[in-house]
Here is the input.
Amino acid sequence: MTKVAQKPPMGWNSWDCYAATVTEEQVLNNAKYMKKHLKSHGWEYVVCDIQWSEPGAGTTAWEYRPMAPLNMDKWGRLIPAENRFPSSAGGKGFKPIADQVHAMGLKFGIHIMRGIPRQAAYARMPILGCEGVTTDQIANPFSVSKWNSDMYGLFHKNKGAQEYYDSIFKLYAEWEVDFIKVDDICNTNLHAHAPYSAKREIEMMRRAIENSGRPMVLSLSPGPAVIEEAWHLKKHAEMWRITDDFWDHWPLLLDMFRRCEVWQHHVGPGNWPDCDMLPLGHIGIGHKNPRQTRFTKAEQLTMMNLWCIFRSPLMMGGEMNDNDDWTLSLMTNDDVLSVNQDGCNPRQIAFQDGYAIWVSDAPNGAVNLALFNLSDKTAEVSCTLSEIAQAVKSRTIRDLWSGKEFEVTGDVIKTELEAHGSVLYRLG
Here is the structure.
C-alpha cells in the first residue's frame, strides 16, 4: 500500500472563499499567487473544492442547488462544467488545469463526494470495466448525505462497486490529480449511531488509488473523525478531519484544543489528523458573506501556532490575491512552518484554567514550545523546564515569530499574553 504525504500537506482550498461557485480562473489565479509568494516556503497543493460538475452552481443558491443536473460522461463519472472550467471542453477534464499547475511546480487536487451521482443511477448507465452491470445496481438509495443531494453511496458488496471507484480514480489519474478530498465519508453525520458508516467505501477508494497507479493524497471529510477508528483511518487515508467545518469563531478555535488532545498520539508520517482549512484573509465570497476573517490578530496567531505544533495539514482558505502583508506574513515564516513540517511527537502538557501548553520535539535535540492564553483577558502563562524536556542543551529561547532570543533564568518560562493570544518558542 502506497502512502504519500510524509509531511503535513500545505496548500490552498477554494471552499472558504468560493464555496460551490469556484471557477477555473479563480483556481489558476490562486495557483499563480502560490507560485510567486508561497512555493519557496513549502506550499504546494492547489485544491478545487465542491460542485465543479454543476453548471449552475451559485446561480440560485449560495451553496447547493437540490437535485441539480451534473455533468457526467457515458460511464456515470462526473466531469467539470465547461461554462466554469472552459479548458475541460472536448473531454479533457481537469488535465489542462493540472498541467498548468504542475508547470508552476505545484500540485493539483479536487473535491469529490463519496458514491455515485443519483442521476447516473436513475439513467442505468454502464460501468467501465464491469460489463453487464449498470449504475443502478450498485447505488444505495438509503446511503445519502444529509446536506447535499448529489450522490448515493455504494453497496460495497455488489459487483460493479469497486469497478466504479476504480473507474473514477483511473480518470483522476489520467487528469494527473495529486490530491483527492472526499466528502460525506469521514463522519457521514446522517445516523448518530453510525458516524463511520462509509468505512467500506474508504477501503474501496484506497484500493482504487492503488489500482490507478498514481500516488494521490486521500483526505477525508467532514469530521469529527471517530477516535475508535483511528487504526482504520491511519491504514487507509493520509488526512482525516477531526472537526466539522471550521470557521472564524473563537469558540470553534477554543474547542480545537480538546480535539487535538484526543488525536495527538496519531500524528506521524502519512497520517495527519486535520483541523480543517485556515479561514484567513478574504473569505466568504461564494457564501454570499464576503469578509475579512473575524479572528483577531491574536487569534490568528493562536490558530497558526496550534495547527503548526499539532502538525495539522495547512490549507489556506482565503482568496490569496487579496492577502495583506499581515496575512502573507502568517504563511511565510519559515521558522514557524518548520514546527509543522519537521517537528515530531506533539503533545499537550496542560489544558486548564484558561491556558494551554503544547510541546513537540525539534531536530537536533531542540524543543518547540507553545503557550496559549485561552481566557478573555490578559494573563500570564508559565511552565517549567522540567515540564517540557528531560534535558536541554541550551537555556536560550527564540521566539519563532519575532526571531528574538532570550535566556531562561531559573526553571520557569513565563510570558504575559493578551486575550486569546499565544507565543511559539524554540528551546535549545
